Amino acid sequence: MASQCLDPINGRGPYVEKMLGRHAESLEITGSLATAGELFVASLEISADDPHQLIPTCLLIRQVSGLRALALLAVNGFYTEALGHQRSLMEALARLSALIARPEWLQDYLIQDVLNRKKMLGDILSFRQDWPPEMVREPSDEVLQQQIAEATQRLTDFKAEQGRTARDIKTFDWAQIGGVDHLMYGRFVMASEALHFAPKSLESLLMVNGEELESIRIGPEENDFDHLLMTSCRYVFVGLQKLANHLGVDLPGDVEELHQRFNAIEERMADDALREE
Question: Apex CA 149: angle with CA 146 and CA 153, to 5°?
Fold first, then answer.
């Protein structure tokens, strides 16, 4: 009965129980890090009037929440979905790091929603061009055009205030400015493939015998579970340290102890992988 309660939604209680035992070490590190991150943020005295403190702190707590969500997906056998979710941890770290390294980029970060919204509304209007006149448009084209005009005005105001046009900054631009791009090479591509349903992300579904397709896999997927969790933890460790440095505070001692254990486990896992080869 206890195992059934571990996953009342998907009915994978026995599988979850097995994963909790098989990967106890990496799951313990992940859970402890998430808890330490939450306690660290709770201990901070952040001024609501200082966006240079507030926004990086919010990005860190999104990272921590993302780590918890990723672990839940993975332990329930949704490995590919968890891998796609890992991209959010990288994106949060890239922006957090860049806003700390270049505080003047805060205005670019804040205006991103306006740029994205204007493009989205324009795409909707463009998509509707081939609709027959009798097809209901909700919201109306006029409402969308008004919202585009408002976004355009905000972008005009931005240019007047900042002395330059708003920039549509991509994730790797944020990462390079923040000095964390080296942590994302390879993993970001893999996570993006999983998130956007690239053909390569479907390979794990195919059960083959030589050249013959035997079936499509249905059910839990495990793959490199420990590596997924450990790389995800690394992004959060870096985010924690960068925010602490930015705010001029020390990380709690248990975070440093946890990081030492993390490094030891990661080194041992690397050695084990080499021996298996």
Answer: 140
Instruction: Please tell me the distance from the alpha carbon of residue 11 to that of residue 76, in angstroms, as a whole number.
Output: 10
SS3 213: strand
Q: Which residues contact 48 (CB under 8 A, 6 or more apart)?
A: 54
| Residue numbers of the domain that contains 215 | 14-104+168-276
- CA-to-CA separations, 185 to 82, 86, 170, 179, 189, in angstroms, rounded: 18, 13, 15, 12, 7
Determine the longest span between alpha carbons in the chain, in angstroms.
68
Which amino acid, 84? G
| Out of 63-72, 242-251, 263-272, least confident range | 263-272
Q: Is 163 left (phi over 0), alpha (psi -120 to 50) or beta?
A: left
Predicted local distance difference test score (pLDDT) of residue 236 = 98
**Is residue 275 predicted with pLDDT exceeding 60?**
yes
Q: Is residue 202 part of a domain?
A: yes
Contact between residue 96 and residue 63 where contact means Cβ atoms under 8 Å apart: yes
Q: Which helix (H) or strand (E) holds 208?
A: strand 206-209
124: exposed, middle or buried (C-beta count within 10 Å: 0-12, 13-18, 19+)? Answer: middle
d(CA 51, CA 106): 8
Pairing type for strands 212-216 and 206-209 reads: antiparallel
Assess if residue 249 is contained within a domain.
yes
Q: What is the DSSP letter of 11?
A: S
Q: Is residue 99 part of a domain?
A: yes
Bridge partner list, 213: 208
Q: Which two tokens stand for residue 73?
A: 């997906």
**What distance, in Å, lies between the first and last C-alpha atoms of the chain?**
40
Question: pLDDT of 214-245, one tens digit each?
Answer: 999 888 988 889 999 999 999 999 999 999 99
How many structural domains compose the chain? 1
